[in-house]
Amino acid sequence: MVTITVMLIKNDFDRREVNLIPDVSQALAWLEKHPQALKGIQRGLERETLRVNADGTLATTGHPEALGSALTHKWITTDFAEALLEFITPVDGDIEHMLTFMRDLHRYTARNMGDERMWPLSMPCYIAEGQDIELAQYGTSNTGRFKTLYREGLKNRYGALMQTISGVHYNFSLPMAFWQAKCGDIAGADAKEKISAGYFRVIRNYYRFGWVIPYLFGASPAICSSFLQGKPTSLPFEKTECGMYYLPYATSLRLSDLGYTNKSQSNLGITFNDLYEYVAGLKQAIKTPSEEYAKIGIEKDGKRLQINSNVLQIENELYAPIRPKRVTRSGESPSDALLRGGIEYIEVRSLDINPFSPIGVDEQQVRFLDLFMVWCALADAPEMSSSELACTRVNWNRVILEGRKPGLTLGIGCETAQFPLPQVGKDLFRDLKRVAQTLDSINGGEAYQKVCDELVACFDNPDLTFSARILRSMIDTGIGGTGKAFAEAYRNLLREEPLEILREEDFVAEREASERRQQEMEAADTEPFAVWLEKHA
């Protein structure tokens, strides 16, 4: 249950005693008695980055040959565009090992992309709206052509520029020991139901309190002018001499309506209270016709323009800051995988690229997310209607657009009471510190507690946040100048560093294996794409 304590003294707002955060004292006491329940947390990372030329413009070359097939490579693929790389780590129980693996992927790529660089920011620059951006290419198999057609649909629905925005995804799962300690001896269908319910609790708390992520780690307080072309906005942007637009207290414009969002999905009514309810909402969305997308058409001059004209072409099109996930089997949709086995892990999607790390993410962020996910699993999370879910967006928008503004307040759901953000943040970190002590007790050292001590200072001093730090650089040299400087420095650094976990031979072997897998897929197809597509559209 969410408890709120508000004490007004002489109407002096700043002297309120606040407790907006749910009371998790009993859950924390339980955790401290069962520390081994957190032994075996699993996580993984995905990082997107644009390939750019030395002058910051988008690379027009094909996917680097040394990286093999983007369709079937285990670790390195592409997202929307041919120039939009995506690095994927295997599931890992060791944070340092996972980050080193990710760094090896960057090291090898940096040495095998000629004179190109990896763009170190979430928001691209030097790309004009309407510029011809080559979609990611996956060969001639029906699956590969389907993936490119899906991207054609995204381009025609939302514009290619929005699709070149990059982020980091953090995948997280709690060990079975946690669920057994919390739910008793569970197995089979009972485990599927209870574990899924537990992860939906995490998701609901994330919607209520996940604004803390862009507050601390948002790193896109500014945009290039191309993002405002044809988009009327009432936001009070300030403009620098080099043509950059910024909001002085913004944290993550990537997460704003100017960034990677989808307004057409706001009325879908998908909720996160029950597995079957969630899947039903998702399946309905891919069957619901859209008048807006019907205007695009399905085909023009013999060229297919989108998979279909429904609200979602496929389930992956659902925009969400967090997703329930299960590894899919061959030919299985994400929702069918969830129905089969329940939620296996959570995908956090609200992280901007960390411009202060050569690999776009660092240990401090991963440890914080561990703490926050555990807290979300412990804290009470009353069920949320679709209208309350929409109300949580108010807090997110405030933090996204003016998170560092002095005196900024937050609310609870659709209620009117308001509370100072710094106090709410510090209340949350009091709980996180106890989670940190538990994690440190089973892992040794004080790494988690150190992260708490470092980050809690950001609430009294917003200048310590990522957005404040990167904005200072951007105001001096612009987004383009900042991006090019970081990209050049990281290119030189990564090219010089030796591989630590993977070997050169591992990359060569995976390149060859991925190309072989793609060729086998292409050879195995017996149906013409048009016939195959009718069964999958």
Summarize the structure.
With 537 residues, the protein is an alpha+beta fold. The protein contains 17 helices and 14 strands.
Detail the topology: elements first, then pairings.
Blueprint: H1 25-33, E1 42-52, E2 76-78, E3 84-88, H2 95-110, E4 117-118, H3 142-158, H4 160-163, E5 168-173, H5 176-183, H6 188-209, H7 212-217, E6 222-223, E7 238-239, E8 245-246, H8 275-285, H9 291-294, E9 299-300, E10 303-304, E11 322-325, H10 334-341, E12 345-351, H11 363-378, H12 386-402, E13 409-411, E14 418-420, H13 421-443, H14 447-460, H15 466-496, H16 504-524, H17 529-536
Antiparallel strand pairs: 1-3, 1-4, 1-5, 2-3, 5-12, 6-8, 7-8, 9-10, 11-12, 13-14
Helix pairs in contact: 1-13, 2-15, 6-11, 8-10, 11-13, 11-14, 13-14
Shape: globular
User: In percent, how helical is the residue content?
Assistant: 40-55%
Radius of gyration: 23 Å
Number of structural domains? 1
Structural class: alpha+beta
Task: Describe the sheet with the most strands.
Answer: 7 strands, antiparallel
CATH architecture: 2-Layer Sandwich
Indicate the mean pLDDT: 93
* CATH class assignment: Alpha Beta
Count the E strands: 14
Beta-sheet strand percentage?
A: 5-15%
- Please give the alpha-carbon distance between the first and last residues: 43 Å
Instruction: Detail the poorly predicted runs.
Output: 1-18
> Number of helical runs?
17
| The CATH topology | Creatine Kinase, Chain A, domain 2
Pfam family, one: Glu_cys_ligase
EC number: 6.3.2.2
Protein name: Glutamate--cysteine ligase
GO molecular function, one term: glutamate-cysteine ligase activity
